[in-house]
Design goal:
Strand order of the largest sheet: 2-1-3-6-12-13
CATH architecture of the largest domain: 3-Layer(aba) Sandwich
Order of helices and strands: HEHEHHEEEHEEHEEHEEEE
Largest sheet: 6 strands, mixed
CATH class of the largest domain: Alpha Beta
Structural class: alpha/beta
Bound molecules: ribose-5-phosphate
Helix content: 25-40%
Radius of gyration: 17 Å
Number of helices: 7
Distance between the termini: 29 Å
CATH topology of the largest domain: Rossmann fold
Length: 219
């Protein structure tokens, strides 16, 4: 396993302490979340089930024999564990590098505790070096791109990619996100935008960061 993968696994391992008996656990998407899924398999008999934030995670969970439930029947979730593309010490995040941002935002919103797991390289002073993913309705693609240009961002269509919801992703370059709460709201207002990959209005509650000196937790 590469060094980067070992760090991701260490963060995922630290998140297991938040899993309690009989819980329905919200499970995210991406390489860090995959480690969490693989580790969760070791305690599958203790949990009631999971809600997945993407088809690909649902498939990985099922392969481990972990029950995957529909959010509509699961109701309010006690816990959601997922990775991030960038995180600040205020626990504001950029997510959606894997294109799963909409379902991730829904599961995060429906969860009492959102535990974000990441290696130290994801910690930044200001969000925006990672191109900000925005999920858009296909017919609004050009309109949304023009609106983003007016705001100073450089939108780029994610080529050959369709989300689990049948939509497109615009990755916005050239953003220096000084006020993530405000920008999340502004971008959300553009007609045709489904979800913005800034998680600031519903930030993480706990950020587990793993580095070469071990694992630390920000709250
Ligand atoms: O859409 C994908 C998710 O937001 C991921 O949590 C994010 O891209 C981080 O992925 P990874 O753990 O692979 O860096």
């Amino acid at each position: 396993m590469s060094n980067a993968d070992q760090l991701k696994k260490a963060a995922a391992e630290a998140a297991l302490q938040y899993v309690e008996d009989d819980m329905i656990v919200g499970v995210g998407t991406g390489s860090t979340a995959n480690h969490f899924i693989d580790l969760l398999a070791g305690m599958k008999a203790r949990i009631e089930g999971t809600v997945a934030s993407s088809e690909v995670s649902a498939e990985r969970l099922r392969k481990h024999g972990i029950p995957v439930m529909d959010l509509n029947s699961a109701g309010q979730l006690p816990l959601y564990v997922d990775g991030a593309d960038e995180a600040t010490e205020h626990l504001h995040l950029i997510k959606g590098g894997g294109g799963a941002l909409t379902r991730e935002k829904i599961v995060a919103a429906a969860s009492e505790k959102f535990v974000c797991i990441a290696d130290e390289s994801k910690l930044v002073g200001m969000l925006g070096a990672f191109p900000l993913p925005v999920e858009v309705i296909p017919m609004a693609r050009s309109f949304v791109a023009r609106e983003i240009l007016k705001m100073g961002g450089q939108p780029e269509l994610r080529q050959g990619f369709t989300t689990d919801n049948g939509n497109l992703i615009l990755d916005i370059h050239n953003l220096h996100i000084a006020n993530p709460v405000e920008l999340e709201g502004q971008l959300n207002q553009i007609a045709g935008v489904v979800t913005v990959g800034i998680f600031a209005r519903r930030p993480a509650d706990v950020l587990i960061l793993s580095g070469k000196d071990g694992v630390r937790t920000l709250r």
